[in-house]
Amino acid sequence: MGHQTLAETTKSGQSESKTANTKKLFIKTYGCQMNVYDSERMRDVLAPVGYTPVDSPDGADLVVLNTCHIREKAAEKVYSELGRIRKLKEKSGGKMKVAVAGCVAQAEGEEIMRRAPVVDLVLGPQSYHKLPEMIARVSRKLGERLETDFDTQEKFDLMPQTRTVDGPTAFLTIQEGCDKFCTFCVVPYTRGAEFSRPVDQIVAEARSLVAQGVREITLLGQNVNAYHGAAPKLEADESWGLGQLIKHLAKIGGLDRLRYTTSHPRDMDDALIEVHRDEPALMPYLHLPLQAGSDRILKAMNRDHTYAEFKKLVAKIRAAKPELALSSDFIVGFPGESELDFKRTLEAVEEIGFASSFSFKYSPRPGTPGAAMPGQVPEDVKSERLARLQKLLTAQQLAFNQSLIGKTLSVLIEGTGRGENELFGRAPYLQGTHFIGDENLIGNIVSVEITDAGQNSLRGILSDG
Ligand code: SAH
Ligand code: SF4
Ligand code: F3S
Q1: Which of 62, 269, 289, 352 is least enclosed, having the fewest CB within 10 Å?
Q2: Structure pTM?
Q3: What is the number of the ligand 1 atom nearest to the C-alpha of 264?
């Protein structure tokens, strides 16, 4: 589970079936965890109409690119990938169908159709339940090839209620969309207005995951701690916050670990902080993006809080849960950022201390207010600031990981590692952890004594208790 990274993941579930009417589906996923979740859901939607996941686009009947628009580089990848796909489609004699889904589809659907004739259909993040219908339409060469409606509720209501799982961990989207409109960000435009799924629907999905062996669920939302979903039927007319939802989910037998991401500092309420203190199933880890340390820049970003307020919030969270590890996101070179402003970011990082972080050069996104702001920062200045920030962040990350040496941590084993007899799992603070052990242990939570720590992972030995 790459956290918040714009990882490219290709995953297929079952092995290929040889049945004549089985069609091959290849999905390539870019962007955030929600896209990973959405790709799994697309597989679930397509399974009943005969599509089986495969690991390569070569020879696939349907290729789906699930795209990300967050930064320029992420969006560009789609067009270069489509170039490669075009050759494979030609090889198939035009039989292969090509779909572009995700945030680039939502943001520039028309442009994709124009620039890349190889594409048969384009569908935004709220249209995935319509995939089978759209494929049928394309096959008959009838009707619209572009679906970018914004009905998030319909999407969740019409998706299959059951999930196919892949290992002991899973993502579960509970909230989608964003009303915050940070001035650098495309998400409110690509994912639409904030929408929270009803508690009952989430519980049903969580139960279906646990019944298939899932022991850790990460609750997803672009603004997950703004969650306010309809309460269970018996308590009609009410809505629940994220804290209440987590307490409720933690009661599901067999669901041992819960996480959530991504949170906005403004929505971190006391009820949720109390759940961090009181609920052992909620892992002691919190991703809380700060973006910048300068109040002037935070204001220009429309983050709606000052650095002092962020610091106070962190103090409150740490008082409630002292061992909690914090991670964050940072942007350098937002329009108008001076050297002094940037130094405030470095000072903030020094002062707060993060167990891990993601940091990016500001990328002007078409249609967002930031792109039109004066004082755009030159590329070389952004690169230089990013390097200084990352030096500090990686040092903090290594120091945090090294502080775990000698401790015994609980690790949920996800699979085998690269080495002989090596297992791989996640520690409570999300680091990948490697150790020697029997394959039969996959899916279990075990105690591992940490003996070694690198920048991104831990190594240890299985301990008895
Ligand atoms: N909902 C989350 C962020 C989702 S996007 C939040 O409120 O913080 C993930 C991260 O990408 C952001 O935290 C930000 O650091 C980065 N990001 C978003 N837009 C960006 C842009 N235009 N340029 C550079 N980084 C950006
Ligand atoms: Fe983007 Fe801001 Fe919404 Fe996060 S809170 S998704 S950064 S607009
Ligand atoms: Fe990218 Fe869309 Fe996620 S822009 S980060 S895939 S919400």
Answers
A1: 269
A2: 0.94
A3: 7
Element holding 83 (H helix, E strand): helix 72-91
pLDDT tens per residue, range 423-436: 999 999 999 999 99
Pocket of ligand 2 contains residue 291 by CB under 6 Å: no
44 pocket-lining for ligand 1 (C-beta < 6 Å): no
- List, in order, residues 6 or more apart from 346 with CB less than 8 Å away: 293, 388, 389, 392
Q: Is the separation of the CB atoms in 287 and 4 below 8 Å?
A: yes
Question: Burial letters for 18-39: b for 16+ Cβ neighbours within 10 Å, e otherwise?
Answer: eeeeebbbbbbbbbbbbbbbbb
What is the C-alpha to C-alpha distance for residues 318 and 176, in angstroms, rounded to an integer?
A: 28
Residue type, 296: R
Nearest CA owner, ligand 1 atom 12: 329
According to the model, what pLDDT value does residue 372 have? 97
Q: Is the CB of 75 under 6 A from ligand 1?
A: no
Confidence of residue 465 (pLDDT cuts 50, 70, 90): low
